[in-house]
TrEMBL record:
<feature type="binding site">
    <location>
        <begin position="127"/>
        <end position="128"/>
    </location>
    <ligand>
        <name>NAD(+)</name>
    </ligand>
</feature>
<comment type="similarity">
    <text>Belongs to the sugar phosphate cyclases superfamily. Dehydroquinate synthase family.</text>
</comment>
<feature type="binding site">
    <location>
        <begin position="69"/>
        <end position="74"/>
    </location>
    <ligand>
        <name>NAD(+)</name>
    </ligand>
</feature>
<dbReference type="InterPro" id="IPR016037">
    <property type="entry name" value="DHQ_synth_AroB"/>
</dbReference>
<keyword id="KW-0520">NAD</keyword>
<keyword id="KW-0057">Aromatic amino acid biosynthesis</keyword>
<feature type="binding site">
    <location>
        <begin position="103"/>
        <end position="107"/>
    </location>
    <ligand>
        <name>NAD(+)</name>
    </ligand>
</feature>
<keyword id="KW-0963">Cytoplasm</keyword>
<keyword id="KW-0456">Lyase</keyword>
<keyword id="KW-0028">Amino-acid biosynthesis</keyword>
<keyword id="KW-0479">Metal-binding</keyword>
<dbReference type="Pfam" id="PF01761">
    <property type="entry name" value="DHQ_synthase"/>
</dbReference>
<feature type="binding site">
    <location>
        <position position="140"/>
    </location>
    <ligand>
        <name>NAD(+)</name>
    </ligand>
</feature>
<feature type="binding site">
    <location>
        <position position="269"/>
    </location>
    <ligand>
        <name>Zn(2+)</name>
    </ligand>
</feature>
<dbReference type="InterPro" id="IPR030963">
    <property type="entry name" value="DHQ_synth_fam"/>
</dbReference>
<feature type="binding site">
    <location>
        <position position="253"/>
    </location>
    <ligand>
        <name>Zn(2+)</name>
    </ligand>
</feature>
<dbReference type="InterPro" id="IPR056179">
    <property type="entry name" value="DHQS_C"/>
</dbReference>
Length: 380
């Protein structure tokens, strides 16, 4: 069954969840588009090429830009490479980009679309769970700089998002699990049923078997995707440019992004956000807002699906420096999203440094012995 969720805004668009969705591309690209750049990471060459050939068969002049894998593609250099490809192929304002990949690809492709000729159409075809439930929806685009994560970007909503569930068949279980972090985040900020479903099926999700997954597991995963997309669509439909409400989607990200930077992106975004959510829960608890039981629920559900809940205890100065560059910060004021309860996110501004350090102590574990450079592993 195909499900459509509309994202409201100046130019409303649909997030389509189902199978065999490529036939929808021409309608999303619109009548004026002649040239299309399909952007995909090297690891998805066959999928990217299939999309490109399909577009050629439909009469488009279609090009491909093969990108480095994962976070390595979110750089100014890679964006400049894409601008060069488009310049050499005479891309005009009536041409378009199609992204095929995970969240790193949709972030980069969205940014290139936002900046080329000050903005052209982009359709996202997310291929990871994380990109389907979060990154491809909502128009936040961006690249990293040496100083931090997503420091350069733009709000540029797509013309449509095609979540073809078949893509998840080839996703390895660590990437499926990393995507569950954003699903669980959505559960904590806005939809408790997500937490119940995830906890109930944690084992099957953690042991994701791709094409061999049972019908029951596919059904649960599909419901989790739909529920998460509905929450994200509602939030970004109300507050595209993060004037207020949208900040709730950043739950767990203040420390999460700092961990990603300190680890030089050697762990997945979802894994870092998982640790960041436990940190935020501890901040809420230490600030007298959140019950012990809800904090424990964070640890239980994240551990159950194989996500980490602790981080090495000897990186506080670096993490704090990175958190000062978080986009929610204002001047010297650090701002966090914490919870009063499940489904009740609130803002915490300028927490006392001793409370911050105490929350860090609650998530700290010994640094790996013998090799201080070893990155945190999922589930470690
Ligand atoms: N813009 C937003 O609103 C938003 C929201 C959440 C996350 N993000 C960003 O998304 C990124 C993380 O996304 P991600 O977890 O999808 O990571 P990713 O894009 O790096 O993909 C993870 C890995 O999966 C591989 N892959 C992708 N699709 C596959 C498939 N179908 N089968 C097999 N392998 C596949 C990729 O090649 C990569 O190695 C981060 O950069 C994060 O900042 C953005
Ligand atoms: O869509 C949003 O808004 C989010 O915050 C979703 C996050 O999951 C996502 O990782 C986002 O890219 C983080 O944004 P940033 O503004 O903190 O870079
Ligand atoms: Zn995120």
């Amino acid at each position: 069954m195909t499900v459509r969720v509309t994202v409201n805004g100046d130019k409303p668009y649909d997030v389509v969840v189902g199978r065999h969705l490529l036939g929808e591309l021409p309608a999303l690209l619109g009548p004026d588009v002649r040239r299309v750049l399909v952007m995909h990471p090297a690891s998805l060459e066959a999928t990217g090429e299939a999309v490109r050939e399909d577009l050629v068969a439909q009469g488009y002049e279609a090009f491909a830009a093969e990108l480095p894998d994962a976070e390595e593609q979110k750089t100014a250099q890679v964006a400049a490479f894409c601008w060069q490809v488009m310049g050499q192929a005479d891309f005009t304002r009536s041409d378009a980009i199609v992204s095929v990949g995970g969240g790193a690809t949709t972030d980069l492709a969205g940014f290139v679309a936002a900046t080329w000729l000050r903005g052209i159409r982009v359709v996202h075809v997310p291929t990871t769970l994380l990109a389907m439930v979060d990154a491809a929806v909502g128009g936040k685009t961006g690249i990293n700089t040496a100083e931090g994560k997503n420091l350069v970007g733009a709000f540029h909503p797509p013309a449509g998002v095609l979540c073809d569930l078949a893509a998840l068949e080839s996703l390895d279980r660590w990437d499926l699990v990393a995507g569950l972090a954003e699903v669980i985040k959505t559960g904590f900020i806005a939809d408790e049923r997500i937490l119940e479903l995830t906890a109930e099926h944690a084992h099957a999700l953690r042991e994701w078997a791709g094409a061999d997954a049972t019908e029951e597991t596919w059904a649960v995963l599909t419901e989790l995707i739909e529920r998460s997309v509905r929450v994200k669509a509602r939030v970004v439909g109300e507050d595209l440019t993060e004037q207020g409400l949208r900040e709730i989607l950043n739950y767990g990200h203040t420390l999460g992004h700092a961990i990603e930077l300190v680890e030089r992106y050697q762990l997945r975004h979802g894994a870092a956000v998982a640790v960041g959510m436990v940190f935020a829960a501890e901040l809420g608890r230490l600030g007298g807002k959140l019950d012990d039981a809800v904090v424990e629920r964070h640890r239980e559900i994240l551990t159950a699906v194989g996500l980490p809940t602790t981080y090495r205890g000897d990186r506080w100065d670096q993490l704090l420096a990175a958190m000062r560059r978080d986009k929610k910060a204002r001047g010297d004021l650090l701002r966090f999203v914490v919870l009063d309860d499940v489904g009740r996110p609130v803002r915490l501004e300028g927490p006392d440094p001793t409370v911050l350090a105490a929350a860090y102590a609650e998530i700290s574990k010994e640094p790996p012995s013998g090799n201080p450079g070893v990155p945190v592993q999922l589930g470690a």
